[in-house]
Specification:
two-stranded antiparallel sheet, 6% strand
């Protein structure tokens, strides 16, 4: 599996960039600018609102809610979690021969390896928690928007 990933590294990176462009680049077609002449010269002179097709079609439910949340929140989280688990596993799983070769029979080297494995485990937990905390607001707002469409569409005139 590792050799397949190594051989296709450029393709994987290109696919990730393409998914990012599709996922976030389409936001620009969802909004329209509204100019308020009575507010000329103020910050509220131009506002944004959703275009009609956003809520009148399945685009909102299928693409905005399910696809965009999956690609930008859940998939990166689980990929990150998987890769970090593999790193921790690689640091903590040694055969007896490997430990003897790496440490040369020195218990201090073995303790350093165990400490680095513990640090990697802590890092795994911290990175995963930080990622989830930073994205939880997005998930909550998107869920509320999905459940109560009228609340998200109310704009002051």
């Amino acid at each position: 599996m590792n050799s397949t990933i190594s051989r296709n590294r450029k393709l994987i990176a290109l696919c990730a960039i393409f998914l990012g462009i599709i996922s976030k680049g389409t936001i620009s077609i969802e909004f329209e600018l509204v100019h308020h002449e009575q507010c000329y010269g103020q910050m509220t002179a131009t506002t944004m609102k959703f275009r009609e097709f956003v809520y009148d079609t399945q685009y909102h439910y299928l693409f905005r809610f399910w696809y965009r949340n999956f690609v930008t929140v859940f998939a990166p989280f689980f990929i990150l979690l998987y890769l970090n688990i593999r790193i921790v596993k690689a640091l903590t799983t040694y055969s007896t021969a490997t430990v003897c070769l790496v440490t040369n029979g020195n218990s201090e080297d073995l303790q350093k390896r165990k400490a680095s494995a513990r640090a990697a485990t802590r890092t795994l937990v911290m990175v995963g928690c930080c990622y989830m905390i930073s994205n939880i607001i997005n998930v909550i707002l998107t869920s509320i928007e999905q459940a109560n469409k009228d609340m998200a569409v109310e704009y002051p005139e």
